[in-house]
Amino acid sequence: MTPDALKSLIRTIPDFPKPGIEFRDITTLIGHGEGFAACVAMLAERAQAAGAQAIAGMEARGFIFGAAVAAKLALPFIPVRKPGKLPVPVLAVDYALEYGTDRLEVDPDAVGAGQRVVVVDDLIATGGTALAAVQLLRRAGGEVAQALFVIDLPDLGGAEKLREAGVPVQAVMAFAGH
Length: 178
Hints:
Blueprint: H1 3-7, E1 11-14, E2 22-25, H2 27-30, H3 33-49, E3 54-58, H4 61-73, E4 77-80, E5 91-97, E6 100-106, E7 116-124, H5 128-139, E8 143-152, H6 158-164, E9 169-174
Parallel strand pairs: 3-4, 3-7, 7-8, 8-9
Antiparallel strand pairs: 1-2, 5-6
Main location: cytoplasm
Family: Belongs to the purine/pyrimidine phosphoribosyltransferase family.
GO biological process, one term: purine ribonucleoside salvage
């Protein structure tokens, strides 16, 4: 399948979660076996080209794509979790949201010193969560080789913020607007 064919599998929900937002729903993509497999294969090919030694994914939808990419490449998967989900001492980073803050955590033993990590998530919008994950993985000793997304919303500037932080970014598809 081509990226355009995969893009046609994304459902757009207008005015969710609030008026004026066009929500890009990946549920229809992951519910399409051939499409999901093709998308994972595209992400895996890019991760392999970046020299990935591990794949990291942010909770929750990054787990779907990241774990599938890691399994396809027979690489370790590093879960970047929401607070309070890991049963061991963690490294944590707080980051800004539109209104307030949030936190991500990782098991520091999950990341090897100098390990080339590729971050995988379903969507890049403003980049806050992805930037926090990059910061956290670097603090844990990893080298973030690339960030891969199924969807980029370039008008929101998140991919550019990652590039400014020294992380190459690729997406399978992009949608204008937010």
